Amino acid sequence: MLNKERRFLEFRETISNNSLYIIHEVQKSWEVINFHHREPDVVYNYLRYGVKYLNEKVAAKLSVSGFIIKFAGVFVHQKPIVTPVESSSYNKNCELGDLLTVFIMLDRNKNVLHQRAFISQVKKENKLDNKCQQFLYERSSGFSYFRGACKYNREL
User: Fold this and answer.
1) Which domain does 36 fall in, by range?
2) d(CA 116, CA 54)
3) Which of 35, 48, 95, 144 is the most buried (most CB within 10 A)?
4) Is residue 103 within 8 Å of 69, Cβ to Cβ?
5) Rounded to an integer, what distance in angstroms lies between the CA atom of residue 119 and that of residue 139?
6) Rounded average pLDDT over 53-71
7) Number of domains, the chain
8) Is residue 86 part of a domain?
């Protein structure tokens, strides 16, 4: 087996062996955030402090076998505004999400080997009260959005 493949298998084993730790630390990364602020400020503070926490705790523990792990985030609150493709009383415009979180895996030379990103909806309370967003996440097969004068369609 090639050295790089062996190292990657070791890395996968590290992830598997530390899965409970990863989940625990991701949850803890939100504990440093003050939820008494407005929602955009909560997102901004997570980008400032929560992502830093992930890099200090999770990325540091997972950067093994010659791999470097990094987390990053992007403030996407109200960008883009989308419309679910299906016809519904709820298919008004709504934001796609608030926070884009990025996972990056690099080799020793800082070449990107793997990267993934996901968009999260940040809520101060454990409820989704925006009917358009609820329809988009739970029932829609896609959405459309405008960028400048052009309309784009995306499947989920």
Assistant:
1) 3-81+92-123
2) 15
3) 95
4) yes
5) 17
6) 89
7) 1
8) no
CA atoms of 146 and 149, how far apart (whole Å):
7
3-state secondary structure at position 62: helix
State the residue for tokens 């996407």.
Answer: 76
| SS3 state of residue 44 | helix
Q: How many CB atoms are closer than 10 A to CB 139?
A: 13
CA distance 34 to 41: 9
Residue pLDDT, tens place only, 13-45: 888 888 999 999 999 999 989 889 988 999 999
Q: What is the pTM of this model?
A: 0.77
- Cα–Cα distance, 153 to 83 (Å, whole number): 9
Q: Residue 93: is it exposed, middle or buried by C-beta count within 10 angstroms (0-12/13-18/19+)? A: middle
DSSP string, 8-27: HHHHHHHHHHTHHHHHHHHH
Position 1 pLDDT exceeds 60: no
Assess if residue 116 is contained within a domain: yes
Helix 3-17 with 19-29: angle, nearest 10 deg: 60
Residue 147 lies in a domain: no
Strand partners, 71: 103
d(C-alpha 120, C-alpha 99), whole Å: 5
Contact present, 97 and 46 (Cβ < 8 Å):
no
